[in-house]
Give the backbone structure.
Amino acid sequence: MTPTPESKHELRPPPEAGSNALLEYFWTSICDRRLFFFVTDVVLRGDFVVYIARQALEGQEDYKKLTPAELARINPGPGIRALRQSSQELLEMFLSRVIDNFEVYLVDVIRLALHKQPRILSDRKQELTLGHILKFDSIEALTKDIIEGKLKSLSYEGFGELEAWCQG
């Protein structure tokens, strides 16, 4: 059997141990890679099936020597041609997903750190009104609200701002 793109790029399982943020990051990365390989494999195989059927109907025997990847290289079908024409957009979509997933992971790691050590926020400037503070029954509830508010604003920032905040 011809190796598929998925079998060439083994999808290793996520680590067995780690924070929920780490495990979620690995899982989403695996799912995205699996989708990428699935799309390319479906296009490769689709064109290959059409090619094999055409060659068999025409009584030609040489088609048995080709693999889907070889066919795509020497005589690409309409699916491969379309995929190549849209390759930049496809790669940008997947790269955007990789970046988004990593940014979510970073914010989740910051969340873990802040919940473990909320004093990290004590050096940071906070704008709180007395009315806002009095909404909470405990300092823990107020702290959690401040942490989640900070995380919400950080999640909309870029990597530069995330880095600056972590170093600040």
